[in-house]
Every structure is written in C-alpha cells, then in structure tokens.
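Repro:
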Amino acid sequence: MSELPSPAASVIGTSPRPTPGTARANAPRVAAASLVGTTIEYYDFAVYGTASALVLGPAFFPSGNATVSSLAAFLTFAAAFVARPLGVALFGTIGDRLGRRRALVASLLLMGVATIGVGLLPTYETVGVLAPVLLVTLRLLQGVSMGGEWGGAVLLAAEHAPPGRRALYASIPNIGPSLGFLLSSAVILPTLNLVGRDGFTDWAWRIPFLLSTVLVVVGLWVRTTVSESPLFTPPTEASAAAPTSRFPLGTLLARHPGRLLLGIGAALGGSAVYYLTIVYSLSYGPKELGIPQNTMLTAASVGAAAGIAVTLPAARLADRIGRRPVMLTGAVGSVLWAVPMYASLSSRDAWVITGAYTIGLALLALMFSPVAAFLPELFPARLRYTGASAAFILANTLGGGFAPLVATWLNSTWDSPLVLGFYTGGLCLLSLLCLLALPETRDHEFDA
C-alpha cells in the first residue's frame, strides 16, 4: 500500500519530482506561480516602503525634526535588508537540501504574518517605545523572508524551463518587484484620494497591510499546487560524487567567493535605481521639492509599468544573443541616464518626471531581466539556490536597502537631486565593470 502524504508535508509543499518532459509541460504554470509569490512578497515590501516615506516616521518615531523622523523610518526599512542574509542562509539551506518549494512556501508564509502584523501595530502615541520595537521586529522577519524569496522563485521557474528559454521563464517571476509596487500603488493611491492625507496618516495606512491577508492565502494555495524542480535531488538520493552540503552558504563562500562578489556587483547599481525611485523619491519629492504626492506615485508607477513591458522581450533576446550583451546595454544606459533621471525632479513637472522615470526603469529592466537566469547559471546545482539568492540579496542590501539612508544624508548636505544621479550612476558603473569581468552563461549546462 502506498503511503499517504502527511498534512505537514502538504503545508510545506513536498511533491514528487517530475520528469524533464513533465517539467517542461508544467513550466508556464510554475513560472506563473512563482510570479504570484514574488508579486505578493514585493507588494508587502513596497507597501512598507511607501508607508515609511509617507507616514511611519511620525507615527512610530515622533520628533520635532522631519528629517530625523524620516531617517528613523528609513532605518527600519534598512533593517529588513540587514536581516536578508540570515534569510539567504536559512532558506538557501532549505532550498538546496530539502527542496525549492518548501523554502518558497515557508518564506511567503513568514512574509504574510509579518506584513499583517505591521498593519495591526499600535503607534507610539498608544504604547510608547514598544511601538517602534515591535515595528523593527516585524521588519526583521520581513527581511528574513525576502532573503529566500527571489532566488527560489526564479530558480524554480528556470529549472522547469524548456531548452533555449531559460532566461524567458526565469524573468517571469522577476516581474514581481515592479508588479508588487504597482499593486501597492493601486491600493495606496485610491485610499489617499478617498480619505485624504490626514485620514491616511491617522488610520488608513493600515489598509494596504491588512489586504495582504487575501494575497497571502491565494499565494500559498498557488505555490502548494506546483511541482518540485526536476533538477533538485534530495540528500537521500544524492550520489557520493556530488554530496549535498550541510551548510550551502559556507560552501559557497569557501569555493566561489569571486563569483559571488562579482555577482553582487553586477546587481548593485540596478538595486539602487529601483529603491531610490520607488521608495526614497516618494518622500524626497513632496517634502523637499514640493512635488505633489500623486505626481511622484504616478511617475514611479508608469516607470514600473514600462519596466514590466521591457522585461520579457529583453529576456527573450538574452536567450538568443546571450545574457551579457543585454545586461551591458542596460548598465551603460543606466550610467548615462542616472543624472538626467533624477535631475528631472528639479523641474517639478509631472510629464518630465514621468518621462525620465519611464526611461530609467526601462533601462533597469534590461539589466535585471536577464539577471534572473544569469545569477543561477554562475553556480553549480547544489549551491544554486544559495548562490543566486546571496548575490541578489546582498546587492539589494548594499545597493538598495541603504540607498534611502545614504540619499537622505547626501541631500541634507548638498540639497540637490543631482547627487542622487551621481550616486546611482557610480553604482551602475561598478555593475558595468563587474559584468565585464563575468563570463557569458547562456550555453552553460543547467543539469543536476
């Protein structure tokens, strides 16, 4: 008699490993399921980023100085990035040893609990210093969750992909960050218009966080219905010639430190562009330059939509001509466009800002669309989840997580949006140099 799966196994997402033929047939469904997960995770993260720019400073860190309150709110934003490496170690170990799906289901569940928790938190006015302590705790849990999300989602899609279409399928969940931001804007903008800025500051900021409940339930259902990667081999089936590491992150650091550092560098500049655009500028534009809040949200949303439109064609091109040519084009464009992009804020004109952001985030998509296949291809199968996650998440932490803090400090010293352009342009130049130092990976074998 065959053994029935346990309820616990169903929750964490165990499933039989499909054959390569079955995996290719399931590839569109797996990619769509991965996209749902990354969208939800980044919706949660974008909601917090937008809320930190709009309201969380005075609500949880009251101060007579608006800059101090903003810095405190952005510190909690950065705190989640500091926790991401712990998520890489935890979920990378689960993903490389126990399966991609188990790690992805667990990371989504953790993100959902933390995000809903933020929506239920009392403010400083109600419970005093306990409020920011609880906020930082939940942010750390969000960071741990994000440490395992991106790498697992793109990897599950890539390992199911048909031959010659790995970059295309891997790029589908990579749409999630921009789609999550658009979804958060689709909730926040109408809420702001309905209740006004005062109403949003008083109570309505909780609505986007609490709506995450519905999204997480849907995401968990979708993720538990897809198959495990055909290239994942459980430790009990691993051969002596290719044993599974008990601690993949330690093995990665010992055996592939150069690849890891260059992979981090390759994604560094794009991370800064993304987070300065969809997080920092939403606060900086209205507070420092008097640009209407809706103008900034609309410009960032249109730019994110442009990035989504470019993602799949860029990935298909990367499958045809290689990852590096497409990514290098995006990197060069980002270096050249960084200063004009943020200089557009000085115009205070909605059309100019929207146009500049649209071009900037389209160039970013050229960098970040192929990276979803490129980073996993840099590492061997048994370190692939950990390697891809570590490179991308550390780049996000260094280039994105601290970007709002660095930008706040730069503008408190020089008081010009041009410094944002020079800062991001310099990081994009570093990414360009790292890409030049890395090999083309399109033809790399991607077996178990």
